[in-house]
Amino acid sequence: MFTGIVETLGTIRKKASSGQGLRLTIEADTKWSDLMPGESIAVNGACLTVADLSGSAFTVDVSPESIRRTTMGRINAGDKVNLERALRSTDRLGGHIVTGHIDATGVILSRQEQAAFTLFSIQIPKGFAKYVIEKGSIAVDGISLTVNDCHDSSFSVSIIPFTARHTTMGQRKTGDVVNIEFDIIGKYVEKLLLRGREDKAKDVKKGRISTEFLAKHGIV
Q1: How far is CA 198 from the centre of its chain?
Q2: pLDDT value at 114 more than 60
Q3: Cα–Cα distance between 19 and 32 in angstroms, integer?
Q4: Would you place residue 205 in the very low, low, confident or very high pLDDT band (cuts 50, 70, 90)?
Q5: First CA to last CA across the chain, in angstroms?
Q6: What is the structure's pLDDT at 200?
Q7: What is the pLDDT of the chain when averaged over all its residues?
Q8: How far apart are CA 56 and CA 47, in angstroms?
Q9: What is the mean pLDDT of residues 188-192?
Q10: Contacts of 181 (CB under 8 A, 6+ apart)
Q11: What is the 3-state composition of the chain as percent helix, strand, coil, each rounded to the nearest 5?
């Protein structure tokens, strides 16, 4: 689990095919002396496992599913990426709960420089707008951000200068593709509500609930 607070940037030093997947070698700008093989690390928001270490660089394997669902397949040697290590029980939850399981990719529709911040408008695939609420949380390339406003197929976020300097968002431009993870709380609520409706429908179909039953219990 992660918080969406990027710890440091990294540079892709090598990209190689590995079966149907990929193997990426990443050099972190900050050297982590206690990083160990087997640890989870978020790379542009995608949860990956550290396979090997070499100085300040580490290697991760990217599965075909991750290539399909994220921007990992678009990354090239020399590209900068956002890095965050997994949350420890003693850490502050400065952002929001981020799983590192990317839901979809979005496309930057516009970038507007304002007086003290940068406003991004991001398009998302059909069917995902229901998970986006005004002033709610969303992870863009692993960065915990607050939604300014939302529409049927897009939303906007504001980036403060600190975030622009310390993450990849400072270099993002119109047309760039980014990883999107929607707030997990909303997804769980949706699942519970849908399951509840399905269970009720089954009960009605089986005759467990009738008009007489509802009247008897003061529901109708």
Answers
A1: 29
A2: yes
A3: 29
A4: low
A5: 45
A6: 57
A7: 92
A8: 19
A9: 88
A10: 45, 98, 99, 100, 101, 102, 103, 138, 139, 142
A11: 25, 40, 40
- The residues pairing with 27 across neighbouring beta strands, listed in sequence order, are 11, 57
Where along the chain do the CATH 2.40.30.20 domains lie? 8-85, 104-186
Beta-bridged to residue 62, according to DSSP, are 22
- Per-residue model confidence (pLDDT) at position 203: 55
Q: Which listed CATH number (2.40.30.20, 1.10.472.90, 3.40.50.2300, 2.30.30.100) goes with 8-85?
A: 2.40.30.20
Provide CATH code, domain 104-186.
2.40.30.20
Judge contact between 46 and 179, C-beta under 8 A.
yes
Mean pLDDT lowest among 73-77, 122-126, 128-132, 192-196:
192-196
Going 179 to 183 to 186 to 187, the CA torsion angle's sign is positive
- Asked whether residue 161 carries a pLDDT value surpassing 80, the answer given is yes
